[in-house]
UniProtKB/TrEMBL annotation:
It is an enzyme of class 2 (transferase). It comes from the Bacteria. Homotetramer. GO terms for molecular function: 6-phosphofructokinase activity; AMP binding; ATP binding; fructose-6-phosphate binding; identical protein binding; metal ion binding; monosaccharide binding. One of its GO terms (cellular component) is 6-phosphofructokinase complex. The gene is pfkA. ATP binds at G11, R72, F73, G102, D103, G104, S105. This is ATP-dependent 6-phosphofructokinase.
């Protein structure tokens, strides 16, 4: 291997810059040329990339987002589009690629590997919904942001004695929501992995009021329901003023916390070491604080049926 490329794909996440930096600095120290590909698979398709040097990745470890840019590029599913991408990779003499992103990006990495372009995947998403790893790059920063927001919501909902419903990102994974509920001291949590009975929430609010509680915070993962309609319903059924807040993209941005910087750096370094050992079609994870790698196909399969962290949920419920 002489020349590699690195790209970030899908929703950006804090710590992606640290991962790119890890790839670049390790690649250079191994005598490789490292190209940064702009805007994910789209940039690869449009042949937009730049040769990176040591200083290209200076002053980025502390920055959120990804300095290479990211995108969603659904057309990448088309074989003809990928054929053009493979031609670009060959023209540029890229021997291997490091793909930083979520499970969608992994599918692309697997397909490119199958077409003769060795790829290695790094889990970069705030959602923590990738299998084969305990944590994804960006998860802990997003969690801090969410908890800060919940703390603020607590101030105002306690002052007004209201129920506050807070919608958290995570796509179809409740990890961020459950963790936020534990650390944010929420009274109720709703996640995509478990059936939501609105009556349970009504009962809980009424029960808490009877117990003397003056306000409540409810954490709910996105895509479950319209939280503004839910707030109206809860207010109607409990007589308690209720407001909803969608945290939205605020959760994706911001300075990465130390853990995400370290995780991104470790994974970035490891990815180049694995590529030099001939690894292709695999992805990196962290399990019990140790870096591991797995075959991407097995991970993609498991992402669809990713085991729900039941113990985590039980802890949250104990504290309600
Ligand atoms: O995958 C990360 C994520 O932020 C999800 O939590 C969210 O559902 C999605 O991306 C939003 O994607 P987009 O940026 O394409 O709107």
């Amino acid at each position: 291997i002489k020349r590699i490329g690195v790209l970030t794909s899908g929703g950006d996440s804090p710590g992606m810059n640290a991962a790119i930096r890890g790839v670049v600095r390790t690649g250079l120290s191994e005598g490789l040329e490292v190209y940064g590909i702009y805007d994910g698979y789209l940039g690869l398709f449009q042949n937009r990339m730049i040769l990176l040097n040591h200083c290209s990745v200076s002053d980025i470890i502390n920055r959120g987002g990804t300095f290479l840019g990211s995108s969603r590029f659904p057309d990448f599913r088309k074989y003809t589009i990928r054929e053009k991408v493979v031609r670009n990779i060959k023209k540029r003499n890229l021997d291997a690629l490091v793909i930083i992103g979520g499970d969608g990006s992994y599918i692309g990495a697997k397909k490119l590997s199958d077409m003769g372009c060795p790829c290695i995947g790094l889990p970069g998403t705030i959602d923590n919904d990738v299998s084969g790893t305990d944590y994804t790059i960006g998860y802990f920063t997003a969690l801090e942001t969410i908890i800060e927001a919940i703390d603020r919501l607590r101030d105002t909902s306690s002052s007004h004695q209201r129920v506050s419903i807070v919608e958290v990102m995570g796509r179809y994974c409740g990890d961020l929501t459950i963790a936020a509920a534990i650390a944010g001291g929420c009274e109720f949590v709703v996640v995509p992995e478990l059936k939501f009975e609105v009556q349970d929430l009504v009962n809980k609010v009424k029960f808490d009021i009877a117990k003397g509680k003056k306000h409540a915070i409810v954490a709910i993962t996105e895509h479950i329901c319209n939280v503004f309609d839910l707030a109206k319903y809860i207010e109607k059924k409990t007589g308690k003023e209720t407001r909803a807040t969608v945290l939205g993209y605020i959760q994706r941005g911001g300075k990465p916390v130390a853990y995400d910087r370290i995780l991104g750096s470790r994974m970035g370094v490891y990815s180049v070491e694995l590529l030099l050992q001939g690894c292709s079609g695999c992805c990196i994870g962290i399990q019990n604080e140790k870096l591991v790698y797995n075959d991407i196909s097995s991970i993609i399969q498991q992402c669809v049926h990713r085991p729900f962290r039941q113990d985590f949920f039980r802890t949250a419920k104990r504290l309600f």
